[in-house]
Design brief:
Radius of gyration: 19 Å
Largest sheet: 2 strands, antiparallel
Helix content: over 70%
Distance between the termini: 15 Å
Structural class: mainly alpha
Length: 318
């Protein structure tokens, strides 16, 4: 077994051992990183491996978070039902948006996802009676077993691990390899009988489903939700995470999420100009590391065996 194949297991073992020795602040920081890592990875499923410019991925994150919160806050449904309904609701929205968007390509696809995502944001923002409007919903009632930050930490880590494993297996499956073949050469793929729209719609829905799961985890960690998590700015930040870590590396978006969340929390305590720091980070990324951090590492250490245009599917794990 190659060393790089066991790195994720080493990282997981370390993360499992950290809670007893970490201060509360760093537990919260890591739990937030776990949530964002899943969200960024779900975007990269359609962006990096599907080759589709999804410009408003945060809408599925927000729909999952709001569905979960509303069911717990305003109804008496069991926790498990709310837990299962939230990602399903995100997937349904993904079906509705994706059905229109997969008919387009390139920038037109991206602009339509942005427009429809903004429409969903506006509905949630304006429907004050249900969503709390600009104030959102606070004090979401959760089971006693999830009331502590340590419990939220372990839950988010467990769900992240399972979801990453599932997404990895999907990418290594015939469906995942076909999706990447479509991304590399849609004309040739269509000529051999592959239904491009059907595959892209399925990928779009899978991406939205896992973003909805991340939304549930967000509520469990934060105990609240607001319309800001559906904003286009949030979607842009998620995309930067993918670019920073590397679109061609499976774990790249998770790494990018860790860096951005850490910087936002630490830098934000020293200056109010966090967005300026983020802009400089993006500029450096484009100029110095256009392939992202893990993409660069793969090129240098593993002699170009990163997921490439010729062999994207063969090394999807990064």
């Amino acid at each position: 077994m190659k060393f790089r194949s066991i790195i994720p297991f080493i990282v997981l073992a370390v993360l499992l051992a950290l809670p007893p020795v970490l201060p509360r602040y760093y537990l919260y920081l890591l739990a937030s990183i776990f949530v964002t890592a899943l969200l960024a990875t779900s975007l990269n499923f359609i962006l990096g491996f599907g080759g589709l410019l999804q410009l408003h991925h945060a809408v599925f994150f927000g729909v999952g978070a709001y569905t979960f919160s509303i069911l717990l806050y305003k109804t008496s449904v069991p926790f498990v039902v709310a837990l299962m309904a939230a990602p399903v609701a995100a997937a349904v929205i993904a079906v509705l948006i994706g059905w229109f968007c997969v008919r387009l390509r390139g920038l037109y696809f991206g602009m339509l996802t942005l427009a429809l995502g903004q429409l969903v944001w506006a509905i949630i923002y304006r429907w004050s009676a249900l969503t709390g409007g600009d104030d959102g919903l606070h004090g979401i009632p959760l089971p006693e077993s999830l009331s502590s930050l340590k419990a939220a930490y372990y839950l988010t880590l467990a769900v992240l691990t399972v979801c990453m494993a599932i997404l990895y297996l999907i990418l290594k499956s015939p469906f995942g390899l076909t999706l990447m073949a479509i991304r590399d050469n849609p004309v040739r793929s269509e000529s051999v009988g592959i239904n491009i729209r059907r595959h892209r719609l399925a990928a779009f829905v899978i991406s939205g489903l896992f973003a909805g799961i991340a939304g549930v985890l967000f509520v469990i960690v934060e105990k609240s939700v607001s319309p800001s998590i559906l904003s286009w700015g949030e979607s842009a930040e998620i995309m930067i995470m993918c670019l920073l870590g590397g679109l061609t590396a499976f774990y790249g978006p998770a790494l990018g999420a860790g860096i951005i969340v850490f910087l936002s929390m630490k830098v934000g305590t020293y200056t109010e100009y966090w967005m300026l720091v983020l802009g400089i980070t993006l500029l450096i990324l484009v100029l110095v590391l256009p392939q992202g951090i893990l993409g660069f590492v793969q090129d240098k250490l593993f002699k170009g065996r990163a997921v490439s245009k010729e062999g994207w599917g063969a090394n999807a794990s990064g």
